[in-house]
Amino acid sequence: MEKKEVLMAEVITIANRKGGVGKTTTALNLAYSLKELGKKVLVIDLDPQANLTRCFDVENLENIKTIGHLLMAELEEESYSVEDYVISYDEIDIIPSSIYLSVTETQMRSETGSERILSEIIELVREHYDCILIDTSPSLNILTINALCAADSVLITADTQLFAIVGISELLKTIQKIKKRVNPKLSVKGILLTMCDSRTNLSKLLTEQVEEMYQGKIKVFQTKIPKTVKVGEAIYSGQSIKKYAKGSSVDLAYDHLAKEICYE
Ligand code: ATP
Ligand code: MG
Predict the structure, then answer these.
(1) What's the pTM?
(2) Measured in whole angstroms, how far is the alpha carbon of residue 101 from the centre of its chain?
(3) Which of 27, 119, 253, 264 has CA atoms 20 to 30 A from the CA of 227?
C-alpha cells in the first residue's frame, strides 16, 4: 500500500441469501475489471468457506492473518494495524478469510452492538482505495449484517433460477431494516443476473421477470453475466477470468459491469 494519496472508497457488499449464485465469482472478476480501469481495489473475503481467498493464490492459509483475526482484534479492543492483514496480489489488495472466521462469528453473536465491527475497521483504510468489495456467505448471519452495515451499497447477484429470485426479495427486506435502524446511507447498487443462458427459455423468462418486477425501482444491470464453463475452469486453476480467458465473453461482461458501476 505505497500509494498515500487520499481516495474515498465506495464500499460495495455482494450478497444474496441463496448460495451458489455467483457472489464470489463476481467479487473476484469485478475486482480485476475495476483494476483495469485504474481503480485501487480492496476485496474482503467475509465467508469462512474462503473460496475467494483461494482464487488469490494465498499460500499457507492456516498461518496467515485473516479477516477473522482482524474482527477479533477490533472486538477485543486490541491495538492493530489493518495493513498487517492485507495481502497484495496482481495489484489488488485482499483481506483473506479462513475457517477461523466461524469462531469469530460465534464470538460476535454473543456481543451486543457487534454489527458495526467491520465498519469500524473499514473506516481506517477507506481513504486508500477507490473501491472496497465485500464477498459474503449465503446466510444472513452477523457477518453479513456487518457487511451491510459497513457498505454504501449492495450488489445483489442472482442466477436465473427461481430460488435466487426469491432470495432477492428476502434480502431487500433485510436491507430496508438495516437502512432504517443502523445504516441510513445504504442503497442497492443493482441486481446482477449471472449464469445467463440465452439458449434456455427459463433463463430468458426469469431475466424478463426480474427486469419487469424491479423496473423503475431498483437498477437491474444492463450487463448480464453469461454462463460458461470457463468460470469453473478458471476457479479450478485458482485464477481470475482475466488471466485464464482474457477477452472471453465472461471477461468482457465483467469489464462492462465495471464500467456500468464506475460511469453510470
Ligand atoms: P456461495 O453462496 O456458496 O458463496 P456464490 O454465490 O459465491 O456461492 P460462486 O462460488 O461464485 O457462487 O459460484 C457458484 C458456482 O457457479 C461455482 O462452481 C462457479 O464456478 C459457478 N459459476 C459462477 N458464475 C458462473 C458463470 N458465469 N458461468 C458458469 N458457471 C459459473
Ligand atoms: Mg461465495
Answers:
(1) 0.96
(2) 16
(3) 264
* pLDDT 10s digits, 151-177: 999 999 999 887 778 889 889 999 999
Biggest alpha carbon distance in the chain? 55
Residues 144 and 135: their CA atoms lie apart, in Å, by 9
CA of 26 to the centre of ligand 1 (A): 8
To test the pocket of ligand 1, the residue of 24, 25, 51 to mutate (highest count of ligand atoms within 8 Å of its CB) is 25
Q: Residue 112 C-alpha to ligand 1 middle, in angstroms?
A: 34
Residue 198 DSSP SS3: coil
Are 150 and 122 in contact by the 8 Å Cβ rule? The answer is yes
Question: Residues near 197 by Cβ (< 8 Å), separated by ≥ 6?
Answer: 160, 203, 226, 227
For residue 28, which atom of ligand 1 is closest to its CA? 11
CB-based contact 133:44 (threshold 8 Å)? yes
